[in-house]
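Input (structure):
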């Protein structure tokens, strides 16, 4: 995952550095935002479905983030913008990068990359509820795993600009996937010696997603050679997600095992984010 982040950042920074002389306008800023995550919870009594345990939030403020932003206008009708965000742990794990080319005055095509971390909490509760006669999980710590969501999308873009206002509307479709996830559940029979271990390996689970986005920027004051303004941004991600996996069950010893591939019907998933902030332009 670290290598992927380094590659993405390098690919974004390199063209900006090598094409610095082509940059007509630069805007850098700071924003505060909130993210809401909604996921359908299907009933799967026979198998653990990790989607039922991903962390969701109905805009209560648990997924507040701060972000550093950058917008660049090039002399060849190309534009780029970046959002690098941090949740409460202040780790830079939330990314949104976009590039666009407008061969006509207000219409063009754009591409984007999204990335953000997501927690899966207390998934061992499935075994406590379904595995009668067993200590369902010998690890009594709070069960939490982190996975990383990523997506690449492309689609049309509308842009309007005058002396005090810049507006962008994007409607994109793309492919999203998650980082691979491994976890183990070790059990022991109550009043007995029988032991069992479940080893889960969650794959990348690629699926299509829709990604509409709107960004509004207002120039307010001229400050010497720069301009101060405010910006408002809203974006949504909609998809039908699965978290299919391979499970290996070990009984008594690691030499006695059985492996099975588990698949689920796709579940509706939506992530909505809004942010507001200031920018400087020169």
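Output (sequence):
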């Amino acid at each position: 995952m670290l290598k992927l982040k380094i590659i993405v950042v390098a690919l974004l920074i390199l063209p900006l550095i090598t094409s610095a002389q082509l940059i007509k306008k630069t805007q850098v800023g700071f924003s505060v935002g909130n993210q809401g995550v909604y996921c359908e919870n299907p009933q799967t009594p026979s198998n653990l479905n990790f989607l039922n345990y991903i962390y969701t939030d109905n805009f209560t403020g648990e997924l507040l983030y701060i972000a550093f932003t950058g917008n660049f206008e090039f002399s060849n009708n190309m534009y780029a913008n970046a959002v690098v965000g941090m949740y409460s742990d202040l780790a830079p794990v939330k990314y949104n990068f976009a590039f666009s080319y407008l061969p006509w005055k207000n219409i063009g095509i754009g591409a984007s990359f999204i990335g953000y971390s997501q927690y899966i909490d207390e998934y061992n509760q499935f075994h406590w509820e379904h595995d009668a006669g067993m200590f369902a999980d010998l690890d009594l710590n709070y069960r939490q795993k982190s996975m990383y969501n990523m997506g690449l999308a492309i689609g049309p873009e509308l842009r309007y600009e005058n002396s005090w206002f810049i507006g962008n509307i994007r409607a994109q479709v793309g492919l999203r996937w998650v980082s691979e996830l491994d976890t183990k559940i070790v059990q022991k029979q109550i009043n007995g010696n029988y032991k069992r271990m479940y080893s889960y390996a969650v794959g990348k689970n690629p699926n299509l997603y829709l990604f509409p986005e709107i960004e509004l920027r207002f120039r307010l004051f001229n400050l010497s050679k720069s301009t101060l303004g405010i910006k408002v941004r809203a974006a949504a991600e909609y998809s039908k997600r699965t978290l299919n996996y391979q499970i290996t069950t070990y009984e008594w010893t690691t030499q006695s095992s059985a492996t099975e591939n588990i698949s689920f019907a796709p579940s509706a998933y939506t992530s909505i984010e809004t942010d507001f902030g200031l920018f400087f332009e020169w």
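Notes: The longest strand covers residues 144-161. Residues 92 and 219 are 28 Å apart (CA to CA).
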